[in-house]
Amino acid sequence: MVSIAVESAEMARAAWAAAASVPDPEVPCVTVADLGILRAVEIEDGVAVARVTPTYSGCPAVLAIELAVEAALRDAGFEARVERVFSPAWTTEWITAEGRSKLREYGIAPPARASNSIRALFGETQVDCPRCGSSETERVSEFGSTACKALYRCATCREPFDYFKCI
Ligand SMILES: [Zn+2]
User: Fold this and answer.
1) Are 164 and 154 in contact (CB under 8 A)?
2) Which one of 30, 42, 122, 132 is separated from 80 by 20 to 30 angstroms, measured CA to CA?
């Protein structure tokens, strides 16, 4: 006989797996779980409730992420609801080790360290080249392919790359 507690734990695991597979709309090489945006998925009265924390308020991807997570849960057969959680605030420290290595493979320098400072937001931190590892890099533009990223160029291998800003 399967207890209700075991059954709901299995449902919660399946719901987490479905929601965690959603790619970030701006950086599709990483999932919302890799980025730490997906906080939790719980089964409440038979409904899968996903809690999502926006990276920062100016990021237009937040709504797209919420819709994608909800759709993934429905596709997995769940009644679903997505709740936005603002506290504690997301920082780049929430990006998992796997997420950081995926970003690097994709040619995006992962955030150097978690920070909420304005200086860090505008990239005034040491950024290493994701291709050759050189620290001889320069910021070309505050905004890369999306507002969450800055464009850098490596002085060693001459390649431009995106830097995922610290926020
Ligand atoms: Zn380089």
Assistant:
1) no
2) 30
CA-CA distance, 153 to 141, in Å (whole number)? 10
The answer to whether residues 155 and 103 belong to one domain is yes
Q: Which of 61, 72, 12 is nearest to 35 (CA)?
A: 61
Could you tell me the pTM of the whole model?
0.69
| 103 and 75 share one domain | no
Query: How many Å lie between the centroid of ligand 1 and the Cα of residue 140?
Result: 14
- Alpha helix (H) residue ranges in 2-148: 4-20, 61-75, 97-105, 118-121
Helix (H) or strand (E) holding 40: strand 38-44
Look at the chain and report how many structural domains it folds into: 2
CA of 63 to the centre of ligand 1 (A): 34
Going from the Cα of 122 to the center of ligand 1, the distance in angstroms, rounded, reads: 20
Do 67 and 115 belong to one domain? no
Residue 135 CA to ligand 1 center (angstroms) comes to: 8
Consecutive H or E run containing 129:
none
